[in-house]
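> example.struct
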């Protein structure tokens, strides 16, 4: 059975990151993207340039309030999982989950707000071995979606 994955993009800033996430979502078989808050939406030239048409092949919806999307997804039976570096985050490579997952990713500078993190059942992080503390959100999204696909 194919794992059901949706993603919630919380206040992303970069249109290029959004386009890249669309393209990766298509490749990973993500069912739907929820673009929330200040996250840019198609149609936009910069999104299209990096998405290469995936903005037309991946279902998406804009919602102003991220927390409402999360609560809706919980009611639909999704396990809400944040991708964020926190003190108690689980290593993504040892992460186990249920069949239906909603992956939440956040702003390129500020990450996921504490009010949104509180609504997530689990938090996972990608271990960093170099000097930088995090990866670009679209790169991290790619790693996370493929890890969830096999979890």
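> example.seq
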């Amino acid at each position: 059975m194919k794992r059901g994955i949706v993603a919630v993009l919380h206040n992303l800033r970069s249109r290029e990151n959004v386009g890249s996430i669309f393209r990766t979502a298509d490749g990973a078989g993500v069912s739907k993207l929820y673009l929330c808050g200040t996250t840019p939406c198609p149609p936009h030239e910069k999104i299209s340039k990096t998405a290469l048409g995936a903005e037309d092949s991946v279902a998406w919806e804009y919602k102003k309030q991220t927390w409402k999307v999360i609560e809706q997804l919980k009611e639909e039976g999704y396990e809400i999982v944040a991708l964020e570096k926190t003190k108690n985050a689980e290593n993504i490579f040892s992460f186990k989950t249920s069949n239906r997952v909603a992956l939440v990713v956040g702003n390129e500078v500020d990450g996921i707000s504490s009010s949104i993190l509180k609504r997530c059942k689990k938090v996972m992080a990608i271990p960093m071995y170099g000097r930088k503390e995090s990866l670009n959100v679209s790169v991290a999204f790619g790693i996370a979606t493929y890890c969830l696909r096999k979890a």
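> remarks
The longest strand covers residues 4-10.
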